[in-house]
Design brief:
The protein is of the alpha/beta class. The protein has nine helices and eleven strands. The chain folds into two domains: about 140 residues, ATPase, nucleotide binding domain (Nucleotidyltransferase, domain 5); about 170 residues, 2-Layer Sandwich (Nucleotidyltransferase, domain 5), CATH 3.30.420.
């Protein structure tokens, strides 16, 4: 029997989860709404909130799972990538708790956690799992990658963004329009009432399977600047169409390379993960493309798309079974 405590503190959500023999027993998340006022995450505020939240969040996760803390086999934690102050809180807590319980620690790459969220099963629900090898489009606020997943612990990045990530493009363009943070979900909601073909923006051309979203973002910014000069109320009068068109262009860029990657690798097991994988238009577009191309498409449950400790715990579980633990000298890192 293996019981893994997972701890996630890479950005502004403090989360703890318990997995027993691969089954999720609890997944507790404390959000930080204070950042909405500033239009983005303030690292110092985030780390202070983690310090306040981590003990009660872990306590509730253990109680919800109906286990005793001395039953924990190992503690998995996010080592990176993420905000240094936030990561320090999670890593430091993991070290102290592991020392107190005399159990091993397992470092987890946050991005691998997003991918392996596809293997989360709950007490009364077994979710569909992709078969190896599968191709995963990882899209989040800070990362956009195409990854070939060969087994639970073997990943090959075959494409990545050379500048901004897709999530950044959503959030930064939303900010330009005066929309609240985080902008991605707001754009997704407003786009439902808009025309995705109302406007068109530049699609940067990058070699291979890599991505670039800075040019699209700049094109959007200049487009608004010119239109506002002609009509100061342009954004207000066209918000839904702007959101739908921007979202359509970003999804087009994402899917173009995903289709190319599937053709090159001959892989038809296709998954998406990360915060942007909650976008309804992206999910619909990949499902439709998959039906057309004969893909087996795997869409993560919405509750597992954002940062959460369940994905850290399941990754830690597979690493624990493989004997991949780490020492107390481990340090967090902003990049991995």
């Amino acid at each position: 029997m293996a019981i893994i405590l997972g701890i996630e503190s890479s950005c502004d959500d403090t989360s703890a989860a318990i997995i027993k023999d691969g089954i999720l027993l609890s997944n507790i998340i404390a959000n930080q709404s204070v950042h909405e006022f500033y239009g983005g995450v303030i690292p110092e505020l985030a780390s202070r909130a983690h310090q306040q939240n981590i003990i009660p969040v872990v306590s509730v996760a253990i109680k919800t799972a109906k286990i005793e803390k001395n039953e924990i086999s190992a503690i998995a934690f996010t080592r990176g990538p993420g905000l240094m102050g936030s990561l320090l809180v999670g890593v430091s807590f993991a070290k102290g708790f592991a020392k107190a319980l005399d159990v091993p620690m397992i470092e987890v790459n946050h991005l691998q956690g997003h991918i392996l969220a596809h293997f989360l099963d709950e007490k009364d629900k077994k979710n569909p799992h992709p078969e190896f090898p599968f191709l995963c489009l990882l899209v989040s606020g800070g990362h956009t990658q195409l990854v070939v997943v060969k087994d639970f612990l073997t990943f090959e990045i075959i494409g990545k963004t050379v500048d901004d990530a897709a999530g950044e493009a959503f959030d930064k363009c939303a900010k330009v329009m005066g929309l609240p943070y985080p902008g991605g979900p707001v754009i997704d909601k407003l786009a439902k009432d808009g025309n995705p073909n109302a406007f068109a923006f530049a699609h940067p051309v990058v070699g291979g399977l890599d991505y670039s979203f800075s040019g699209l973002k700049t094109s959007f910014l200049y487009f608004l600047r010119d239109r506002i000069t002609e009509n100061p109320d342009f954004i207000e009068e066209n918000t839904a169409d702007l959101c739908a068109s921007l979202q359509n262009d970003i999804i087009h860029v994402l899917l173009k390379n995903l289709m190319k990657a599937s053709e090159q690798t001959k892989i038809k097991e296709i998954a998406i993960s990360g915060g942007v994988s909650a976008n309804s238009a992206l999910r619909n577009a990949i499902a439709a493309e998959g039906k057309h191309r004969g893909w087996n498409v795997y869409l993560p449950q919405l509750k597992f798309t954002t940062d959460n400790a369940a994905m850290i715990a399941i990754t830690g579980y597979f690493k624990y079974l493989n004997g991949q633990t780490c020492g107390y000298d481990v340090t967090p890192t902003t990049r991995m």
